[in-house]
């Protein structure tokens, strides 16, 4: 790609450095910004800079927040005896979007993955144990992806938390709602038969 | 999508206002920036602002440029008797990338499209006529997409330029190199038979 302008080249390279954006898409975005008022670009840029400079981690649950404590931890209507452990803020948002959960969260900031050099010390695990030790928490729910690393993390956490006298649970695994059985993977289908639940007629 | 932070929400909305970027992708980009140093975000933002503030149109050909005259118009090695007319800078870059053309350009800034309310007066057509009137240009090549609006534009331009004593040509149309005939559209295939060229053995 030959650029007629160094300024455009730098702007395209800036966009193309983001994940999933190639140089053609980057150029399309730059030309889009050029079509708009220059105030659009300024607002776009300042929204990002303000976000990066102003954002912080909730001192309780490590959710991203504008204040020292995130709006979930600060919400008095939420059930403080329940803590849902998630890998990252994206999983937290996915659970929030279901509208089915009214407890608190704890964001680990990753999962234990020796292959990537991530050990328990790199995650927000001690802080979780400290929260449990305070005594208000009744149940810790592991909402962690059912991968090998995820299972390792869940195992490590339960070994650490159960002695503190808290109940540890994991989100239900099984075939998806609306999914066709014939397309479910073997492992999930096999385990969902072994871990079958009594059918309740309401 | 529920955001735990107004700052993140604004940054996501900023990304999602760009064409082809949805809210999920926008969130992924924002979380990517959060993982990097804050200097990354600052450099990203300043590259865009500098680009938007510093860019201008070449006073000769309306290509985007850092200077008053773009690097193509300023290049003494290029053939000044040839002008290639393109709809926009993206088409210009595509032709430059072929490495097959060494003349100058003229960027129209769009094509005549009554349905979108774009008439000849909205495009850089008078400036093209003025360039032709200067007398140095021998041939004007229409490199405009072969759509209905494109053909209208080409017709309008030739009616305007031919009386000025300049040769007007259009880029060759036909089946693509490397393309399978059975997948070529009917119109292109039909016209490529009518407009067949003598086969030259080198």
Query: What is the CATH level 1 assignment of the largest domain in chain A?
Result: Alpha Beta
Which series of helices and strands of chain A comes N to C? HHHEEEHEHEHEH
For the largest beta sheet of chain A, what order do the strands appear in spatially? 4-3-5-6
Low-confidence stretches of chain A: none
Instruction: Give the rounded overall mean pLDDT of chain A.
Output: 90
Radius of gyration of chain A: 22 Å
SS-based class of chain A? alpha/beta
Q: Provide a count of the helices of chain A.
A: 7
Number of folding domains of chain A? 2
**What percentage of residues of chain A falls in helices of 4 or more residues?**
40-55%
Let me know the number of strands of chain A: 6
- How much of the sequence of chain A is in beta strands? 5-15%
**How far is it from the N-terminal to the C-terminal residue of chain A, by CA?**
64 Å
Task: Please give a structural write-up.
Two copies of one chain form a homodimer. The first copy, chain A, is built from seven helices and six strands. Chain A is an alpha/beta fold and 202 residues long. Chain A folds into two domains: 49 residues, Helicase, Ruva Protein, domain 3; 107 residues, Dna Topoisomerase Vi A Subunit, Chain: A, domain 2, CATH 3.40.1360.10. In chain A, the strands form two sheets. Chain A has a four-stranded parallel sheet. The mean pLDDT of chain A is 90. At the A-B interface, helix 1, helix 2, helix 3, strand 2 and helix 4 of A face helix 1, helix 2, helix 3, strand 2 and helix 4 of B.
